[in-house]
Description:
Radius of gyration: 15 Å
Strand content: 35-45%
Number of domains: 1
Largest sheet: 9 strands, mixed
Order of helices and strands: EEEHEEEHEEE
Number of helices: 2
Helix content: 10-25%
Number of strands: 9
Amino acid sequence: xxxxCSAIELPEYPNHPNRLPFLGILGFTDSPSExxxxxxxxxxxILTRQAALDALPxxxxxxxxxxxxxxxxxxxxxxxxxxxxxxxxxxxxVRGIIYASDCRVDVVALRKGxxxxxxEVADGKVIDMRASIxxxxxxxxxxxxxxxxxxxxxxxxxxxxxxx
Length: 164
C-alpha cells in the first residue's frame, strides 16, 4: 500500500481551546459515487486516482463547512480547516482542526450523529459528458463539507472528532 500526502504543520500548542482535531474519509478514487454530487447534473461520478493525487495539494489549507441541517454544503459557513490530505488505498483521507470554541454548536452536533464528508471541486474535467457515470480526470479541490453520511455522494465517507 502506498500513501501519498500533502500537509501543512501548525505549531504545537497543547490544549488550544479553538483547535479540535478531526480525521475524515473524504471520498474514494476509481469507484463510482452512490449518489450524484451537487454540480454533476444528476450524474454519479468517478474520481480517478491520478486526478485525486494531482489535486491533493489543493486540499491543504481549504475550509471545512457544515450546514445546520446536516445535508448540504454551505461553503460560506466554515467551521475548520484541512491541514493534511493523503491517499490510503482508494480512500482520500483528510486531517485538520475544527474551531471548537468558535463553533461550539457544530461540535455538539457532530458528536451526536453518524457523519460523512463530501468534497467540493472546481474546474473538473469529465472524460465523456455523455456517459451515465462521469469520470473526472482532473479537479481542483475547493474544500469539503461535513454532512450526514447517508446524504453524501459516497455513503461510506466518515468524519471523526478527537475526544478533546
